[in-house]
Structure formats: structure tokens, C-alpha cells
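Quick one - first record:
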Amino acid sequence: MVNSTAGWATVAPSPRLARRRLMLLAGGLAVVAARPARAAWPDRPIRLIVAYPPGGGTDIMARAVAQKLGEILNQPIVVENRSGAGGTVGTLAAAQARPDGYTLLFANGGEFAVKPLLERGLPYDPGTDFDLIAMCGWTPVVFAVNGRLPVRTLGEFLDLARRQPGQINIANSGSRGTMHLAAAYLAQRAGVELTHVPYRGAAPAVGDAAGGTVQGVMMGLPPILPQAREGRLRILGVMSSRRNANIPDVKTFEELGFPGFDLSNSVGIAGPRGVPPDAVAMLNAAVNRVMADEQVRRIFVDNGAEPVNGSVEDYRTFLANETARMREVVRISGVPPE
């Protein structure tokens, strides 16, 4: 049979062919109907790994971010502390997680910008094992001394160190980390001999400095602040490009005669390499909303951190600059990789 419509001629299919086409169409519709629709992300709780013990400044900031982020995403954000090996245990756990966006890392710049420069055989590679998602803030490294030490300024401390070479003990949170480098860097830049005393974490290092077991401590500002406010520690300088709002009267090392002395440390959100781009985009937008929240910002400031927000590229640029700074610090400090 030939049907003709407006000059077009078509041949009608045979009844057998028509039945076959109907069967194929019905089968295709059945397959589509049976295929489950892709669930909107996220549809279950998200794990946020913190590579340090509970109760420290990093943990407090991570939990503030987690609570607000959970409200925005309408899913619980479960904080999991996986401490050990100066942050390596938790960072590695995040790198090895399934890259579906349901396991994230509250990343510390020391794990991404310092350890690769100092540790041979590091079991993760920040450049290939992670997707950066959003930077949350940065914290300055500060140098503080016991409140009873007879020095009021950095200059007076360095004079004391020159009179007592090797007898001034400086605590930090562990060998071959940012704080160890900071002390070695200061010693080289100032031409003094300081004795490095590593501790297993910030709390015991700060506690012994406040108690007088050691004369000084290199540390991020958060654990130093309470002791400084009580007068048990005296902060002599801030190792960042500008003064900190919590201690506005304390000068930067640049103001104290050490130009380029910037050892600020970033914190942010990262995930194992391969997180779906739509999840990265959603998380970045959500974290930026978190970091605009006044309560979250206050928690960061109270813990000595400067809250920030921005794009994934902003975070990548900051870490690249941080790595370049730390590479120079490693070169000048003379701390060899192991």
C-alpha cells in the first residue's frame, strides 16, 4: 500500500514488521522504567576526617564547619578523628576513600605543603591523590615564651639565646613539621643556636612551655591563645604577612626585622581524587555559605584563624604559594628530608 501526503510517498510496513517494532519499543520502555533514577546528591550522611585529636583548634573549627554544612546540605556531617603520625594517618585514610563525595578531609596545609618536602616515601601525594574543594581559613604560626622568662621582646630573646647557645629549648608539635621548620628557620635567620624539643601534639608542647619545662614554643595561634591570655605564655611575634585580630598589638616578624617570614597554615575541605564535578561544585558553594556565617566566623577567629571563602582555583593558588614558601623555608633551615 502507498500513502501519499503533500507529495511525499511512504510504503506502509507489513503487519509482521509493525508488530516487531511495537515489541522492541515496549521492551525499551520497560528497561527505562526498570532503571532506577539517579538519586540527588547527597542522599546520606557525609564523613569528614580530621587528622588530629579531638579538642584542638583544628578539630573545633572542623566541627563548626561540619555542623553548618550539614544544615545547608540537609545531611549529617559526621566528624571522624583519625590522628597519628602527625596527621598522616587521617590524610591517608581520606586519600584511600571512595571518591563519591561522601568522605572528605578537613585538610591542613602542613600535610599538603610541608610533609612532601620533608618525608621520603610519604604514602599519599597531595597533587595526585586529592581534589581540592574549598579553603576555609588560615592560621598564623606564632613564637611564644614562658611568661616568667626575663624577656619582653623578640630582640631580648635573641640576645639571651646568643648568650646561652644551645641552652634555650623550643617545643613544637613534632619533628619535621611546620613548627619544627619554623624554629629551625628562625635560628638560621637570626644566627642563634636553639634546641629543638619535639612533642606528640600541640597540647603537651604548649603545656610544658606554659609550665616552664621548656623556655619557648613554636605553634599555631589557637592552642597558644588561652595560655597567653592567662599570662603563662608571652607571644613575641606572628609569622604571617599581617597582624592577627586576636593579638593586634603583637608585631609580625617582618615588622621585627625578618622580611618574608610568612609561615601561615591553611585549612580547608578536600576529597579523594575523582569526586564528581557536580558534588565538588555543590560543596564549594555550600562551604562558602558556611564561611559567611557569623557564628562560624567567630569560632574561627576565637581560635586564632582568619576565615576565608573562594573558588577551588583560589584554594589551589594558596596551596601552591604555601608550598613555594615552605620550600624556601626548608632550604634555609637546613632540615633534611628523611
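second record:
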Amino acid sequence: MRASFYRGNRTFETGTAPMPAPADGEALLRIRRVGICGTDLHIFQGHLDHRVPLGGIIGHEIFADVVSAPAGSGFREGDRVVVEPVQFCGQCRACRMGATYLCYQLKVLGVDVTGGMQEYWAVPAARLLKLPDSVSDHDAPLIEPLAVATHDVARAEVKPGDRVVVFGGGPIGTLIALVSRHRGAEVKVVEINPHRVEMLKRFGLDPIGPEEDVKAAVNAWTGGTGADVAFEVSGSPDAAVLVTEVVRVWGTVSIIAIHAEPVPFQLYSLFARELKVHGSRLYTRAAWEEAIRLVASAAVNVGPLVSRVIPLEDLQRGMEEALGGGPVMKVLVEVGG
């Protein structure tokens, strides 16, 4: 079967791999489409070489069909599924607390261990979620990033009437903005890429563009009080400096972006306004279930995020284009038809 292998040095190579044999409790999947996300771009740039093995197969935003499944798993041949790509021990303090997605022995499928950039994949059936017919094949690969967003918004406790600032209008930032708006919040998104600024407008979102002073724009919007919640999703050191500066007294700052290097952070605002700051990583099962409901009910329209669909053999080019800063939002890899 075909698979794409990470070779290091910004290189992916498509070749052949043996057909996987499912172990006890595993389902065999035929992979349909895989999304390229920000974590994959960090992998491509070598930022996660301490986790991703050379010759490894990445990909964790998965849409697939079930080929076979264990008896009693609730899945059968032909089911359309997405994959919750976490591997946890179930015994450590984090798991006992209910934070299995933050397990001290956590492995992410498609990062630390084999992922979905291959035609067939054997995955524990416990990690699968079935898709209703109302979720289209086009939208299905966006369930994983939407689950990130639903988890982030839940962690930040966004509520009706809140004013929310999202730093970064890429796929995750846009989805956080859409989920926050669905919850009844007013939202502004800070973004410097002109293509993404226009896409935000098409979603009916209100961007703060590259020509604007972010702090002044938020002060004008909130009468000088500051936003209730600010999300840092851009990965920009400049945003890290600003994110605590735009939030009101007792406001919330949520850090979602992966910052590969230490960055400056305004701690004085944290002290002076008694801000609540937290990180937000991955997702709960409840976040996945909410994401599926939002897409199935058309409450959140994820489809327009897809910029293009490429074949597996073009994964290298897809990574380069996604990093290029051009008119690209979300790239999907067509693994099998």
C-alpha cells in the first residue's frame, strides 16, 4: 500500500508500506482524507524531531471508512469514522483526574506513533467516532480541528455576551471564533494575512487587520475595559506580548499556539488585572461529540476553510504551500477515493 514517510530536513517521501494487521481491539481503516495542520507544519520544519521518528508516518486529522472492526465494538464495515488520535495509559495522575488527553505517557497518533498518511491503518476501535450521514465527506476531515476549537472555547468558559479576541485567523483561530460566536459571544480576530482577512469577512467575522493598532482597536470596541477572553493561536511572539494587554480585569487568556522558542510575555498585566491564564491542548471526547453535532446540524460551516485537496504524492508540496503565507487556509490530502 502507499504511504508517505517523514525523512527529516523538510522532506516527505511517498513509498510503499506493508498492509497493517489489526491487533486485538483494533479496527482496520481505509483512509479517505487527512488534513494538514499546524502541528504537521512544525513537524515539517523539524521542531518536533524529538518526538517524530525518521521514517515515521504522520497525519492525525483523519476521515476514513471501516474495513473491519472487533465484534462488540459498535462499528462495522462501511462505517464512516473520524479518529481521536490519543494513546494514554489510564493509570497516571492525569488519567485518574479525567485528563486522559494530557496523560503523562501521552502518545499522539500521527505524531509520536504511526498516523494516517497511508492507505490503510489499524487503530484501536475505542478511538473511533461514527459520523452521521449529515456530515459530508468534504467536511469530515475538519471534525478534528473543530474538536480542538470546541475544547478551547469550553476551557475558556466563553458565554453569551462575552467579547472575545482571537489572535490568529488560521484554521484553528477561525474555528475558535466561529464556535465562540455560536455560543453568543461577539468576536474580533487579529490577522495579518490579506487572504485570511478576506476569508474571515466571508464568514461574517470581524477582523483586526495588519494596518490597525490591536490594543487601540480593542479599547475602542470595549470602551477601554478590555475583552473578556483572548486566545493566542497565532504562534507569533508579538501576539504573546499583546495577549495579556487586551483583556479586562479578571479576564481570561488562553494559550493554544505552539511556541517553539521562549517568547516575551507581559506578566505585569497578569498581576495588575488578576487575569486567569491557561493552556489548552488537544481535546476531550465531549469536545469531539460537540464538534460532530455542530457540523451535522450546520451550526458551524467548516467547508469553506478547505483551500485545496491534493494527492498523497504531493504532501511535500502541500506542506511548502501551507507555510508559504499565500492564499491557503486548509489543505487536505486525498489518500483514497
